[in-house]
Protein: Sigma-70 family RNA polymerase sigma factor
Organism: Thalassobius vesicularis
Amino acid sequence: MLRVRDARDKAAFARLFDHYAPRLKAMGMRAGLGAAQAEEVVQDVMLKLWDRAAQFDPDRAQVSAWIYQIARNQMADLRRKEFRPVPEALLTPEEPEPDAAQAVALEQETTRLRKALSALSDEQRQLVEMAYLGELSHAQIKEGTGLPLGTIKSRIRLGLDRLRHELKGTRP
């Protein structure tokens, strides 16, 4: 460990890895981690060992005690991360069951909208459907139809005015 700390000796690090990796994996699996998680802990511990080699002090602890302490901390961090509660803002609320009256009202509105759309000319209905049901921009409609942009905008505007007139007063 001193050669890793003092000279960043990769061969010495490889020997440390070969010696401690199987022991750390076994420690993780005894602690209840799966094989993949235990291997992830081993990788993280050995990376920290390399990055923090300058912090190792042989007067304070043995190499094994220092490495196992890093591993225990890493496993505790992993458990905390797994069992962290989800903030309430991120919880998706359960959708309430649709009320029968709401379903009937929605069906009636849909029927009214279909009837109003059928009252439009074919050119207006096609462009309104492309813009609002197909969610296409005016430029995309122009590409698809080859119509001038002014014509597209006029037909959509006139179609919406007609729809507004057809649907006026039909909402409860």
About this structure: Helices lie at 2-7, 10-30, 35-51, 63-82, 100-118, 122-133, 138-145, 149-167. The chain has a mean pLDDT of 87. The radius of gyration is 34 Å. Residues 62 and 113 are 78 Å apart (CA to CA).
